[in-house]
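Re: the request from the purification team.
They wanted to know what the chain is likely to look like in 3D before they choose a buffer screen. I agreed to run a prediction and write the result into the notebook, where they can find it.
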Amino acid sequence: MGLKEMFLLLFVLLSLGNSGNGVEGRGSISLSKEEDLEIERQLKIINKPAVKTIKDGYGQIFSCVDINKQPAFDHPLLMNHKIQMGPGSLPKVIKDKKASSLGVSLKVGLKDGGCPLGTVPIRRITKEELKRAKSSPNIGKGYPSNAQDPSNDEGKFRFELQSTYKDGGAEFGSRAVLNTWQPKITGNQSSGSLVILRDESPPEQTRSIHAGWLVSNGLYHDFLPHLSTAWTNDNHQKTGCYDSLCPGFVQISRDLPVGIGLSPTSIYNGTQYYIIVTVYKDLLSEAWWLLYGDEKKKVGYWPKVLFNSTFADHADVAQWGGIVYNAGVLPWPEMGSGHKPEINQQYRTACYIGGVNFIDKNGDSIPFTKENPYRIIASSPCYEFFHDIQVPGENYAVLFGGPGGNNC
């Protein structure tokens, strides 16, 4: 296998569609004087004046900025946007009281209640981080789905679980439980577990939103998992990015920002720590909202106006799964625990995503079951995938992960 940019993917696709995602790496940085000046200009735009700064346990610095002057509103389509402090409707996702039997639900947030009233936390971006974003076609932006064509991507790995379930493929949200791990990566690799909503007509103009956890030194400057989001309106060609690296995502929570570190992480064959992620379409405002945890904490939202085509109304695909990215350095990184799933140990030894639910146009939560049609595609010995796993307290779960290696 050549030392070139490579994508590696493990995904669970539910509903209509069959593409996946990749994650950014780090490359050499060589910018002209003009580009350097442009980066300085953009830093002044991104890093708004702060009322207060807060450092989380990972060393990330968050600026408390005026909620009405946050970076989201630099987007030309959001110049006159009226901020929403909460969704007009909530999905009817019933809290599963048995979920705690899986382990410990992570209660995360900035210290001392977070930012003052009227402000929200935005992760402070460094000049070096923005340089890397400019020097690589993928860092900070997300990952174009056309990079996952198994016919022309050496070393690619993809699993799919595809359903043609309900409403002709129209999805209005999804909810899932993801256990957190700290897979080993090098400085230019990433590994994570995600919930994704996607519209793929046409494929080269894919609209999507994702949320979950990601380990990415190129993005977060450490080797630990973070609450990670991304969006795009054109398959990450010109629009979209991770977290708040570009205008778009409207932060609402004063103490739970996107990009925050997640701790502790699961222990192999021991205590499991998990997050619950819900992404859904608000029936009244039609914005896509991100909720976190059992308590369905309102983190923020992506306004409808960011998206065109059908994604402004609904998604074609709801996806759950894991992902790794390698930018030319072998061996391939770990996924999840770094171990392949062991059916006898189930969720204590590998990445799992359980409690998988669709959210329909009425806001009702509909569990995914093994009766839904699916198909699986696999092409790598480095990772493994089990589906239709019965995990205590979860209606449906998938297990995945592996050690990576040199021959993936």
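For the purification team: The longest helix spans residues 33-46.
Please add any questions underneath this entry.
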